[in-house]
Design goal:
Length: 200
């Protein structure tokens, strides 16, 4: 199952490597820097307030974390919880994490435990700075079975009795939808992926 999870995250790895090769800062390193900056900014603000300083024009700009839960509670804008429940019985609530990087905005939505029984959706919205053609080409290379009519191209990346991953491209957005469970319905995963594509 670890191998399955690794394959399902190929889209992320490919994008990070491609961006790194193009000379841009990776999302991972940006995340670390931003998180560190956010902590520093919070500490500075607290110290200033306690010392009584009221300087409005601080040399430390307000830091916004690049990785954070979805604003307003966990709601996946790409796949509803009811649609996830159609793929996995008792899917439960979704956990959403959004990461902004120099080349893309990465949204991860997780229901259940993907290593056993779960649904994992990864949406990567590319920006103008992303090496889009390289990322898209690498993603399509991971497709083992093409599915017609799926966005601008895509299909099955993994298709076994207990693990199905469908990846596709629509415009500047790359989607990976993975379901792990006993007797996964591959057709249902494709239908959900097509519904996502139609909404992009």
């Amino acid at each position: 199952m670890r191998q399955y999870l690794s394959r399902s995250l190929l889209i992320v790895s490919v994008a990070f490597l491609s961006v790194a090769c193009s000379g841009s800062t990776t999302t991972a390193s940006t995340t670390t820097t931003a998180s560190s900056g956010a902590t520093t900014a919070t500490t500075t603000a607290t110290t200033t307030a306690s010392s009584g300083a009221t300087t409005a024009g601080s040399s430390n700009p307000a830091a916004t974390p690049t990785v954070a839960p979805a604003a307003g509670g966990d709601t996946c804008k790409f796949l509803s919880t009811s649609d996830a429940s159609a793929l996995l019985a008792n899917a439960g609530p979704v956990k959403v994490v959004v990461a902004d990087g120099p080349a893309s905005k990465l949204t991860t939505c997780t229901w259940g435990k993907i290593t056993t029984d779960g649904v994992l959706l990864i949406a990567q919205e590319l920006t103008a700075a992303a090496p889009a053609s390289d990322i898209k080409a690498a993603m399509l290379e991971s497709v083992v079975e093409t599915v017609p009519g799926l966005g601008d191209g895509g299909g099955f990346e993994t298709k076994t009795a207990d693990a199905v991953t469908v990846v596709f491209i629509k415009g500047s957005t790359l989607i990976s939808l993975s379901v792990s469970a006993t007797a996964v319905n591959a057709d249902a995963v494709v239908a959900a992926a097509k519904k996502i594509a139609a909404g992009l």
